[in-house]
Write a structure and sequence with these properties.
Layout: H1 5-34, H2 42-78, H3 86-92, H4 94-109, H5 113-128, H6 136-166
Helix pairs in contact: 1-2, 1-6, 2-5, 3-4, 4-6, 5-6
Length: about 170
């Protein structure tokens, strides 16, 4: 099997950073959920907070990696000034123009919110540390920021997959 440069770039963007983002999210969400006084001993709190810190920081880094590679590596190929570029293919047909008008606008702009939210969540975890077990409000805020980061990225990823199905980057 041979992968060209664009396929390697797309692989790093989606299956590298994107997959790491998904894995880190599931671990961090479980970490937030289980970080409650009735579920954990004092010694267990320290161990869980260490894992939570790694998970949320990994998620934030993966989110930044995903949007940066998407914006500066994948997106220029999408927008190439040729008749067979994905953007040209989508805009050439009225039935697919909406995929560019709405789907790519989401991916171009709104997807950047995901790493910002993930970074704030990571900051809250790093700042409060083991005190998250006592500060239920901070724990829930950090958890919801993480969920919103995931939801934003999920919509962007879905649009990316659907747009690539209609007009793949060549």
């Amino acid at each position: 099997m041979h992968l060209d440069g664009r396929e390697i770039g797309a692989l790093i963007h989606g299956m590298g950073f994107g997959a790491l983002f998904l894995l880190a999210f599931s671990g961090a969400l479980a970490g937030f959920y289980s970080l409650r006084p009735e579920l954990v001993t004092a010694l267990g709190v320290q161990e869980r907070v260490k894992r939570l810190k790694v998970g949320v920081v990994a998620m934030a880094v993966a989110a930044w990696g995903t949007v940066i590679t998407g914006t500066y590596i994948i997106y220029p190929w999408y927008r190439a000034k040729s008749a067979d570029s994905p953007k040209s293919i989508l805009l050439a047909d009225e039935s697919t123009a909406g995929w560019h008008d709405f789907g790519m606008e989401w991916k171009e702009h709104i997807a950047w919110i995901s790493p910002m939210l993930a970074t704030v969540s990571a900051f809250v975890v790093l700042y409060y540390g083991v005190d998250l077990i006592k500060n239920d409000r901070a724990r829930k805020i950090a958890m919801w920021l993480l969920i919103l980061a995931f939801a934003t990225a999920a919509v962007a990823g879905l649009f990316g997959a659907l747009i690539t199905k209609i007009a793949p980057v060549k």
